[in-house]
Amino acid sequence: EMIPIVIGKGGSTMRELRQEGQGALIETTPENTIKIYSTDEGTRNTIECKIYEIIARNQVGYVEIDKNTIGILLGEPGKEVRETCKELGCDINVSKDDTKVVIRGTVEKIEESSEVIKEFLAKNHVDGMSFDPEDEPVLRMGGKDSILSTVAKEYGVINNLRRERNTLQIRGEADKVKAAIKDVQTFLNGGEGNIVVKFKVPGEALGGVIGKGGSNIAKLETEFDGARIHIAREGHVVSIRGPEENVKKCRSKMLTDIATTRVIDSIDGLSDEKFNELSNSDFMRRTSRFTNASITLSENSIRIRGISGDVRDAKASINEHLTGTYRAFIDLEGSQTERVKNASERDSSHFDRIKATAGAVIEIEAFAVVISGKKSNVKKAKHQLMEWLGFILGNELRSLKIHRALYKPMSNPEQLASMANETGACISLDRDMSCILVRSEDPARSGEALQLLEGMLVETKKRNLLVKFETADTWLLSIIVGKGGATIKKLEQDSNCRFDIIKEEVTVVISGETEDIVQSGKAAVDEIVDQARKECIFTDIPESAMSAFIGKGGSGIKKFSSDNQVKMERINKLHSGTIKITGKEENVATARDAVVAWVMEWEASNEGISVDIDERIIPVVIGKGGETIRRIQKETGCKLDINRQQSTITAREGGSDNARKEAVSKVQTIIDEEMIQIAKRTAEKEQAEKARASVRSKSTENGGSEAPAGTTMKPPVTVSAGVKDRSSEFASKPVGWAPVNDQKKNGKSKKETKHVVNKLTRNRLLSDENISCEKDESGQLVYFYASPLGFSVKLDVQFDEEN
Q: 427 and 413 in contact (C-beta within 8 Å)?
């Protein structure tokens, strides 16, 4: 290190030494030696002294430095330190490996400069931390009361926020820098009594949450001391940080406000064609009634007002009507979304299967699984997804099935918000699956909320009674409504109940303030129905006898009507043998007896061949649109009459007994084939039930109810409702779970045995007959559970012991 200094820049120092030595020869050797040649000893001594002076002035000292602090020392903050070292006659620089400060000067001055530099470095220790880009505004939120300002004041540190790198550098004394970083990390991520919660706010509700000039946010932060609220404009994600209790209370308050506040949303850019289409249909009215949202149609837009969830459902239905694409959601908590995303990335077969079978697009967004496509496909996909999510999230996500008629009373925003406040769980109505969804990262909280909902459902059913009629009794609905709605209006006035008709389900919904009022309303409906059944009856006539009964130009049926002072008409004229008789009660009864007598006389003179038939098989014999029964009649020339009351099919006409026998034979063949299929389906159902019972029995033997940790289960391909509890179909404890039992045996106490921690070993796992293993492409063993229900489950096994 000293040879270059003695030589000097461009050899300048060496030239000066030669001039002073009056021509003396000075050279360096590869061995780091300087040789002086001169015939004069005094000259040699003078040059030697000069060289030692140069060496003394250029001694080297080192001070260790952190790489993060180099820029501080050599930049503006270290300017004063550098000037002090220069005044002491020392030059400072940094070593090539960026680990040391290099100080050149005399030994005494190096020591002084080292102390100055060490003191500076001690007060200017630099450390840093990274953060998520979305948290950058959170660090500055609050201005002079922000977390950065707070730690700067408390610890006397200097902060440097580097947005381009998403890092925060803090400078100051080492222990204070460490404490400041810890405080910032705790603020961002929670810990030591502080938590962070995040949830998504519907875009249309965002303005109401923030308030004018942020007034609502400021009010919440004042009410819940220490809570800091930030709303990301992109994604509409709310994050609340601070003391655990106050943060939870603040979250509940915000969710309550969101759930109960009326919002406005719109669909713009409506074409003239779509405007005319919507104007001339009752779609908007039906959507408004179904979702409880207020919908206003203008020339180029649709305005939707109501509670946030209702508005979202209404908008989805309208967009589906306009574009053919329905978009639905299964909302989740932040950590739940992460787990679902990770599970789908580890094994995408579940999503692929659901997409293939349901024909819908499935995406995982922040705080939700999004399903889009044709509405029927979306509903099917949601049901299947709920099955799969049940395996991933367990009891964190629960559901309660409800009838569509109970949507309004069961989705009362104030009641649901109160339950959410009490339990800390999120509760929402899902119209696609006809259920109330409950979610929480804590299964105990979701369970508590579900219990409250079940109690609410019991009380709601008392005040909202569903009276369902058979499909054949659809005609009763018009009787209950009355001409121009007169009957139903009188019912509502007399009983103080509300009556809603669901035509497609042939159901009347009776709602009232108390159970007694509802029951009185039902009694009034029953009275109307009983009387209607007496004044309007239906009787069957063999189809082949229908033309004779009606007579030429309707003369026969008109005579029956006139003679008995009733009105008679044929129901669904095409391929129907049903006659409707209406009139006064006593006249209707007399007319029915007259028709029965006529039929008996006709059958006596028009004998046929009959075969008994199970009521379940009648639709199969008729065929789609009547094609099967028409084909048999065309092939044989016979008429086939179906008597549903006596469960028989009779072949008549056809010109010969052989033709009638052939027709009956064809019918019998269909009956036999269908009975075989019914028996097969019954056996499969019984086998499946036995399999479930076997699994439940094994679960009981295993002694618990928790599902294996880390197990990835593949749900069955065929699913029904997304709200069904399937937990009983799987082993409730990890395979091989064996607790130690210290109960008495044979009247003698067993020796006290230390409880053994549950251990899963390879031998214990493979001892279960339903477990198998095979090697994958890499040669690793992969384990599978063969479910009695016919699907396999790949297990993610973590052994406690290898053997």
A: no
Write down the residue that tokens 């993060």 correspond to.
Answer: 68
The amino acid sitting at 646 is: Q
**Residue 9 reports pLDDT greater than 70:** yes
Pick from 534, 507, 518: which is nearest to 459 by CA? Answer: 518
d(CA 671, CA 690): 28
Closest CA to 230 of 133, 139, 334: 139
pLDDT one-digit tens code per residue, 606-627 = 878 888 988 888 889 888 888 8
d(CA 44, CA 763): 89
| Residues 6+ positions from 767 with CB-CB distance below 8 Å | 736
Cα separation, 713 vs 732, whole angstroms: 13
Most confident of 268-282, 381-395, 733-747: 381-395
Q: What pLDDT was estimated at residue 417?
A: 87
Nearest-angstrom CA–CA distance, 579 and 610: 22
The highest-confidence range among 47-61, 373-387, 566-580, by mean pLDDT, is 373-387
The DSSP string of 330-394 is: EE--HHHHHHHHHHHHH-THHHHHHHHHH--EEEEETTEEEEEESHHHHHHHHHHHHHHHHHHHG
Q: What is the Cβ-side half-sphere exposure of residue 31, based on CA atoms within 13 angstroms?
A: 3
Kindly state the tokens that stand for 122: 């001690």
138 alpha-carbon distance from chain centroid: 27
Q: What is the pLDDT of residues 702-747, one digit of tens each?
A: 544 343 333 333 343 333 333 344 444 444 444 334 444 444 444 4
% the chain with pLDDT above 70: 88
CB atoms under 10 Å from CB of 312, counted, come to 24
Average pLDDT value for the chain: 83
- 245-268: b (≥16 Cβ within 10 Å) or e: ebbbbbbbbbbbebbeeebebebe
Contact between residue 17 and residue 43 where contact means Cβ atoms under 8 Å apart? no
pTM value? 0.62
Note the pLDDT of residue 64: 92
Query: Which phi and psi angles does 172 have, rounded to 5°?
Result: 160, -165
**Which band of pLDDT confidence, cut at 50, 70 and 90, is reported for residue 443?**
very high
Return the structure tokens found at 693.
């019972």
State residue 586's pLDDT score.
92
Q: Mention every residue, 6+ apart, whose C-beta is less than 8 A from residue 190.
A: 196, 241
Token pair 């130690």 is found at 740
User: Phi/psi at 685 (nearest 5 deg)?
Assistant: -65, -45
Q: What is the pLDDT of residue 33?
A: 86
Contacts of residue 676, defined as CB under 8 A and 6 or more positions apart, other chains included, come to none
pLDDT given at position 561 = 92
| Angle, in degrees to the nearest 10, between helices 107-123 and 79-87 | 170
**Long-range contacts of residues 8-14, Cβ cutoff 8 Å, at least 24 apart:** 13/54
Residue 117 in contact with residue 73, Cβ under 8 Å? yes
Q: Is pLDDT at 798 greater than 80 in this prediction?
A: no
Q: How far apart are CA 93 and CA 117, in angstroms?
A: 12
The whole-number average pLDDT for the span 196-202 is 84
* 364 touches 350 (CB < 8 A): no
Radius of gyration of the chain (CA): 44
Structure tokens at 85: 């070292």
Contacts for 193 with CB less than 8 Å, ≥ 6 apart = 243, 244
Distance CA 552, CA 556 (A): 7
The DSSP element (H or E) to which 103 belongs, if any, is: strand 100-105
Q: In whole angstroms, give the CA distance from residue 783 to residue 796.
A: 8
- Of these ranges, 49-58, 248-257, 586-595, 678-687, the one predicted with the greatest mean pLDDT is 586-595
Residue 25 tokens read as 């020869």
Between helix 174-189 and helix 147-155 the angle, nearest 10°, is 160
Both tokens of 632, joined, read 């048999």
